Q: What sequence folds into this?
């Protein structure tokens, strides 16, 4: 009887823990916020200090106050805009203008345009700020290189040539940076100060990497490999592939939420794939969240615990993509 009671007690505890965990896992699409304009879009960035969401949208960046969920400003003349990098300690932001091979500098408090920088590469796409080196880096899709900009002088200080098309990148904020090479299915490691490539590692079985995120505490890279529909976990110290997990189709971006230990991929098919980190070397898919088709770029606001995605109804006519008028919106996902 004691043995039976012991195992019955274990069963009750396991069931309780499983039930509690399932309840804690549930992300949901909470609302859709309409945004004016019918052009295409790419990355989003959030300024948690100001409560501002920067939304790339055609030839402009729209700025939303996330507290009132209204557009409060527009940054114009960012033709072919891709991404927005924020350098809070300088009070400045940097926008990659892909079609005109330039970077727009803005004041992140007033949203005024401060100037433009000519890129050292073609089609600057992803753009991030590295607080360790005090530099902004653009990843130039048509010239297979990376532009480094000093945020103190707003001057280009160097260019890094890479083996193929650079996609998204991350910094460990300790002197190392990493970028997906989309057409080679690799990750390149480079030094943001010396501007030297230090390693290039294969992502196999992952192919076609796009989004990239990092667990800086445990030195783990998370690469969204859209062609193979796999999220690949890599050891950032040696390039070893730790695990690969299935994700939805059409992923462009992903995030890592340290407090929840969740990696979340934004899939253009209209879902989020939620992957939980059990420990630094073990991961599992725990949830699929229904969103909207074309919602494939993503950002996270740590101050509000909300996830934001851009979305619109996309149609094909005569071989060209267009957005159905009146359908562009920001999706808000949270627990």
A:
């Amino acid at each position: 009887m004691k043995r039976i009671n012991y195992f019955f007690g274990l069963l009750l505890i396991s069931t309780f823990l499983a039930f509690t965990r399932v309840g804690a896992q549930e992300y949901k699409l909470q609302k859709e916020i309409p945004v004016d304009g019918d052009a295409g879009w790419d990355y989003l960035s959030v300024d948690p200090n100001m409560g501002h969401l920067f939304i790339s949208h055609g030839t402009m960046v729209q700025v939303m106050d996330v507290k009132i969920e209204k557009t409060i400003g527009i940054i114009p003349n960012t033709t072919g805009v891709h991404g927005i990098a924020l350098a809070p300690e300088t009070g400045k932001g940097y926008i990659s203008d892909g079609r005109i091979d330039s970077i727009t500098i803005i004041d992140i408090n007033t949203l005024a345009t401060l100037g433009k920088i000519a890129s050292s590469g073609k089609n600057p796409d992803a753009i991030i700020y590295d607080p360790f080196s005090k530099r902004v880096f653009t990843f130039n899709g048509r010239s297979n290189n990376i532009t480094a900009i000093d945020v103190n002088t707003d001057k280009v200080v160097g260019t890094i040539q890479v083996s193929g098309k650079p996609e998204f990148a991350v910094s460990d904020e300790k002197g190392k940076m990493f970028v997906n090479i989309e057409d080679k299915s690799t990750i390149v490691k480079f030094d943001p100060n010396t501007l030297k490539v230090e390693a290039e590692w294969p992502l196999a079985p992952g192919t076609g990497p796009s989004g990239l995120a990092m667990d800086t505490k445990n030195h783990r890279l998370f690469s969204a490999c859209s062609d193979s529909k796999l999220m690949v976990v890599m050891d950032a110290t040696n390039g070893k592939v730790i695990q690969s997990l299935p994700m939805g189709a059409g992923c462009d971006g992903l995030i890592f939420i340290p407090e929840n230990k969740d990696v979340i991929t934004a899939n253009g098919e209209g879902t989020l794939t939620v992957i939980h980190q059990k420990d630094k070397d073990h991961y599992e898919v725990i949830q699929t969240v229904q969103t909207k088709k074309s919602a494939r770029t993503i950002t996270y606001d740590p101050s509000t615990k909300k996830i934001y995605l851009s979305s619109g109804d996309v149609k094909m006519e005569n071989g060209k993509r267009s957005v159905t008028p009146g359908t562009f919106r920001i999706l808000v996902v949270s627990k």
Notes: The helical segments are 2-25. Confidence is low (pLDDT under 50) at residues 10-20.
